[in-house]
């Protein structure tokens, strides 16, 4: 046995098993070419020594580490949770381990994490949304690491995208809101800088207003990080302004739940006094009372399709095919027809 | 420029910068020993080539990868989200990147992920809870990778623990429930096999009952995975049994929110017809109506203390010091005094 602080090497395994290092290597990578007797000796030595093939040796032999990296904006609030869970389950079924890191929506942190995951030997990467500095795309191209974008679909993206059209999805909800007689909309948006999903959703509402002859410049817009408390504060700011909307549309469900809470605290009834809408259809949307009208996004389908396609890219079966998924409206109690 | 699919090496950087590979290595690892002129040349070449020190080279030079791995049971439901966010923020402030993987509460998946993270060069690991196969602890000891346990405190654990006493915390809530006149308790538990947090919480309730002369064997216990829908089903099962409890205590807030939803659907008023309690005090607890009585766990403090201590362990400043944190009760509308 080696001392506890020395990491066992391929040599140590070969010595302990009484075979050559080439046999150990073949055994770990292409075990069908090794006799059963050698294989058992090697596996016993591997287990006894606690040997793990290191990145260099294993990557050289298999050309893969069977590790996929996902870099998401946040692990809080469950916005990415369901899609990521499906992504992981599908990867796992295909023999890959998922490592996740989160950026707190900071582009500089994302850039560091991309480099760290590639340095740790990630076979492929999943990124959220397409808006990032050009130098990152150049870097990914130079390193030749298969990378897929999800949570947004963009026809002209440099990398394959598997997601939905954030603008058209929010436009569909806005059309519905206008159909129901609302003319005065307030909007609580996520932070737009560096977040294509947030900016596309806001554009969707503006498009919808213009199409009905309404001026989007009249609409109060409050930007907020995706936290319940901040959504609540943004709602209060909008409702205390000179322009009182009959509906407050929100960039996601987390903001909308904050808006509903603050409405309640301010003595405003939802939807009698003010309607509120969200985006995402996470579990929260059905827990609040009244339930939240929102845009349903096929998170699980998006996650598992992204995993399938990224696996194909890593295994050189595909160079990356984009796929647009449909969203749909969920009309619930928080939105009412205006009298 | 190299072709896009060839990964640049230290040699490539040295050639592009017109310096020796030793200079490049010194520059990347101990830049104070290199002239400013050489440093700038090297950094320009690194940037141009998209060079990332690979695991082997960098680990050899720095003896660290500045990567910490955390393996958590699930990314869904935000049970671990707030603590993990604080863990990551503190690590990041100390110059470390966090990589997270999740196990879906499967011990076999956890074992694989521990090996994968060590193979990817993790300097240290965070694990949740202390209950796992002895061979994992032996493996971690052999590999000499600093490992810390959080979300549970255990005096006699082989590894340092930073967390709270799950049994005593639930016992305190149970005592309160009994003080309020309840004698018939139903319990919805997480899956107990392999989950020390779940089993300790159930034991806390049983202890509390015994201390008042009540027989814990009378208590209906329903085990459920931590999902809202499953909590709802477990609640219905318990309420339709022959023994009708006046309070249903739940192993966490996610189960409790499911119980509240199903109570509502069954036409039962909370807390008039049945009281419901949770554990964790995640955001959900204050979003439901009535708000949920629960045990508040200092998730943020636990996450940041775990990051501080694990950093000290990785940097050989500490061999790992355990720390017990206090939980506290949050008495809200879902629990009432029995007439």
Automatic annotation (TrEMBL), chains A, B:
Keywords: DNA-binding, Transcription, Transcription regulation
InterPro entries: HTH_LacI (IPR000843), LacI/GalR-like_sensor (IPR046335), Lambda_DNA-bd_dom_sf (IPR010982), Peripla_BP_I (IPR028082)
Residue ranges of domain HTH lacI-type in the record: 8-62
The keyword Transcription appears for this protein: yes
UniProt superkingdom: Bacteria
Record GO terms (molecular function): DNA-binding transcription factor activity; transcription cis-regulatory region binding
Spans traversing the lipid bilayer: none
Protein name: Catabolite control protein A
């Amino acid at each position: 046995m080696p001392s506890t602080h020395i990491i066992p090497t391929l040599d140590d395994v070969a010595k302990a098993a009484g075979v050559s290092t080439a046999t150990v290597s073949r055994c770990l990578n292409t075990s069908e070419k090794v006799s059963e007797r050698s294989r058992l000796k090697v596996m016993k030595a591997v287990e006894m020594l606690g040997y793990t093939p290191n990145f260099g040796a294993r990557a050289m032999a298999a050309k893969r580490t069977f590790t996929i990296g996902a870099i998401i904006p946040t692990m809080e609030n469950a916005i990415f949770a369901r899609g990521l869970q499906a992504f992981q389950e599908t990867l796992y079924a295909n023999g890959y381990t998922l490592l996740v890191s989160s950026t707190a929506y900071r582009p500089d942190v994302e850039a560091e994490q991309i480099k760290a995951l590639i340095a740790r030997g990630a076979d492929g990467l999943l990124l959220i949304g397409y808006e990032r500095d050009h130098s990152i795309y150049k870097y990914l191209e130079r390193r030749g690491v298969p990378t897929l974008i999800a949570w947004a679909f963009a026809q002209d993206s440099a990398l394959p995208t598997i997601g939905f059209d954030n603008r058209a999805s929010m436009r569909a909800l806005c059309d519905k809101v206008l159909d129901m007689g609302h003319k005065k909309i307030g909007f609580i948006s996520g932070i737009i800088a560096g977040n294509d999903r947030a900016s596309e959703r806001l554009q969707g509402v503006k498009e919808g207003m213009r199409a009905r002859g309404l001026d989007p410049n009249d609409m109060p817009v409050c930007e907020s990080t995706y936290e319940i408390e901040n959504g609540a504060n943004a709602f209060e700011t909008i409702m205390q302004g000179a322009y009182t909307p009959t509906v407050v549309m929100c960039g996601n469900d987390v903001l909308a739940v904050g808006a509903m809470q603050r409405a309640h605290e301010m003595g405003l009834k939802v939807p009698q006094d003010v309607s509120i809408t969200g985006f995402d259809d996470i579990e929260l949307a059905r827990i609040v009372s009244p339930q939240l009208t929102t845009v349903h996004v096929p998170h699980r389908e998006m996650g598992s399709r992204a995993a399938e396609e990224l696996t194909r890219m890593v295994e050189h079966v595909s160079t990356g095919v984009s796929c647009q998924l449909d969203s749909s409206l969920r009309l619930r109690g928080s939105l009412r027809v205006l009298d």
